User: Fold this.
Amino acid sequence: MSAVEEVVTEAPAVEAVPKRAMTLGNGTSLVMLALFLVVPLLVKNFIIFQLTMLLIYGLAVLALNILTGGSGQFSLGQSAFYAVGAYTSAILMEHAGMNYALTLPIAGVICFGFGFLFGQPALRLSGVYLALATFALATAMPQLLKLGYFEHWTGGVQGLVVTKPDAPFDLPMSQDMWLYYFTLAVTIAIYIFSVNLLRSRSGRAFMAIRDNEIAASAMGIDVALYKTLAFGVSAGITGVAGGLGAIAVQFVAPDSYTIALAISLFLGMVVGGVGWLPGSIVGSAFIIFVPNIAEGISKGLSGAVFGVLLFLVIFLVPHGARQVAIIAQHLIGKAKKN
Amino acid sequence: MLSKQQLRIAAFSTAVIAFAATSGAALAQKKYDTGATDAEIKIGNIMPYSGPASAYGVIGKTEQAYFNKINAEGGINGRKINFISYDDGYSPPKAVEQARKLVESDEVLVVFNPLGTPSNSAIQKYLNAKKVPQLFVATGATKWNDPKNFPWTMGWQPSYQSEARIYAKYLLKEKPDGKIAVLYQNDDFGKDYLKGLKDGLGAKAASMIIAEESYETTEPTIDNHIVKLKASGADVFFSVTTPKFAAQAIKKLAEIQWQPMHLVVNVSASVGGVIKPAGFENSQGILSAAYAKDGADSQWDNDPGMKKFFAFLEKYYPDGNKLDGSVVYGYGVAQTLAKVIEMCGDDLTRANVMKQAASLKDFTPDTLLPGVTINTSATDFAPIEQLQMMRFKGEKWELFGDIISGEVSN
Amino acid sequence: MELFTNQILAGISTGAIYACMALAVVMIYQAIDHLNFAQGEMAMFSTFVSWQLMQWGVPYWGAFVLTLVFSFAGGIAIERLLFKPLAKAPILTNVAGFIALYSIINSVAGLIWDFTIKQYPTPFGSHPFLGSQLISTHQAGMIGITLILLLLLFFFFRFTRMGLAMRAAASLPESARLVGINTSWMIALGWGMAAAIGSIAGMMIAPVVFLEPNMMLGVLIYGFAAAVLGGLTSPFGAVVGGFLVGIFENLVGTYIPGVGNELKLPIALALIITVLVVKPAGLFGRPIVKRV
Assistant:
């Protein structure tokens, strides 16, 4: 059995994203923030619900961006962490009567631990093998949730119904609107945290590991620590997203968290631009709205239409929304000069 | 003697009062909630057109075709039916999104026949809170018959537990010393049946059921479960399986030459969908129960109800496979909704829709077995509760015995 | 003891399904260094095509050969049309492409042939094999075909120039190009062969699981697991991996009390991950040495 030699000089799974390009420029960020604050006041409750889901899935895609785009670990298992977060929130709210806002940090911490633990055996795996291991985790999760052993807590196959909170202090807004602004606040906080994480030493360590693990290790970076840390942080954020998801949908069940969710999140990351945090929202919009569009075009062939639209996107912009942003930047730059 | 002035006032007042009375009465005759107008009634629906349960999407297509027929024939009480059906991919969060879309964006009158226990569980609280009828849900889970807690939710088909109880009654009578092996799908469908069987067998459940095997839908084949169950020495095999796995079970049983008393659940009793692919020769003597007629059964060729069904297929849904039990199902449940809407007359409020739905008396859609009728009341939200047992012989099911009621007292 | 042997035998027969699929998975991995999620759907579609041919009256082996040709050509066509433009794109974008392909094929198959199950014939008959009630002649035939395929692949990669060229193109593309190998067409060829092998897998599997558009999903997961367990660079490993997964899964289901039955898949996958942690290249794979 001869060893196969690989020369690691070419670009690995993801491209390097320079620090500067991690986020949007200040102007664009402010515009986006303004939009997020104002739009819900103008639309119906149902649209607000969709926007809330947009933010929630955006968080989950953001987490995946940190893991895959940041530290180069290919994960198809985010749905497992999302599920753990969702169930943690649901169980705490329904069985322990805990306030919904408190359940989120707990969900985050539990998922962080879970991700950190999973990162340990995952250390020795990379590329396809890691993808398969995470895929296995995602496939196993619904079955673990259905386990008769836990049925008293999880509700087994029937799942748990979750009560949606009212706006506090008797504010004159609907449940949906309150939940939206709450989610927005959480999202912004996590976004700022993630940007700072990736700009910090840890972030640089992640990226060094992503670009060339062996070289990073040779330079003195504790690869094991940072890889498991990346898993933990990513899982924690996904767990918070899951908790918010449970509250927004008001229901958790094993069938809600199948491998299909993990694949959707992955697609969201690719469409948004791997490693580009602002792209998470674009990716999230893609996975929420494009299936609806596909269904509108053809009910019988909705899957095929979705696939075709996805192909169109990846043909036109293989690097996702980030590519669009860069092109836009170029055009604006050129327009300014003229 | 009244003055001219007073007369005019009196006449005028009388006219006003008379006008008010009549128009008041006229206004009292037509009542609408969101989703109903003089011209149309919007009916919402959620089906898995994609994803693991996409085989059931054909129910939604059948219903769409049925309402096309209704509209072509002039609508119900002069109003057309606007059937709006969305895909939830059998995913509860998506079902919630679609339900909200139907209620808040499309503004439908009722959400009709949404499919799948998880999806329905997810939207039940929302629809009841919004007071929108969740009518004739497409799942046999027993929990939909709960008018006290969920007055806006009603099932349609016989619940899984009632069907299982009917099998239990049969077993207690015909094979009281039987040793039962159960293969069940590891979800609420499978578990509901298992519970029904155990409840139906009562005290004897523990001694009669000697082996239980569950399987996941992600498993490619259940062959090894069958091998294990045979090794238990059982002489009764209860197959709580969906069509694909039911067919695999029938085939494997024949292959390993195991010939227990073989009971298969109604969902998987379709001749076209299960028995024929599994092989007629392998399926002799299999038992099941039915509440509807099978399109593959030639004994219904001249049945007036089925003739209407076949004519409907030919004209409005030529792609529809009459051998597919789901198509027969879609027709039956759509016909039931049409009846309820008709019964509402001009009072198309959501409350009245539920009231009429809870007032069905001996209603017989074209596709139900003779003797099986739909009955509902304010305390009975289970429209169909009767089934008849049947045995597979030759190339079709032979009904036998009486129509049995499998009522479950919650 | 009898139950134990029975479960092993039953495990071998389901394992044959996984082994078949695993071969196709390894084939595509040899060509493009990545797993193709749409592999199962392509196999399913090919099987439907062969079924349709038989519905139109073509005899079994005729349909078999025609389908092989169709799959081979189809695999090459898909690669040239859809994935060659993505050659310069990041690998993750390619994976997104696989997922899109999966979605398209599944949806189209559902539209053309609907979702009710169909019986699929087997050339080997369905009688008990050598009197054993646990392995039918079909399953024995399936194992036989898998082993023949394995031998063919082995000879192809080891002893033919084309096979050598393909391996070179997959592991060291730049060097291969320098030697005059058209790496681009090697990839296309790899796709074609993988599609053809997949179609054989589909045609072998369909008689057991019944033909319908969603038939390959479960098989694909196990096929991946088996291929990874055996070593993605080794067709022999893929086949062994398939049998091992089948047997292990059965034993877990039978002997681990309580949860064993409900957690068969997770435990099988956990086993594979454990093996990978100890032997990252799989049981029979070649360890990869990386030069920085």
About this structure: Residues 160-290+390-405 of chain B form a domain with the Rossmann fold fold (CATH 3.40.50.2300). The CA atoms of residues 146 and 410 of chain B lie 8 Å apart. Chain B is about 40% helix and 15% strand. The interface with chain C takes residues 50, 52, 54-55, 57-58, 186, 213-214, 216-221, 223-225, 227-228, 231, 243-244, 247-248, 251, 255-257, 272-274, 276-279, 321, 324 of chain B (CB under 8 Å).
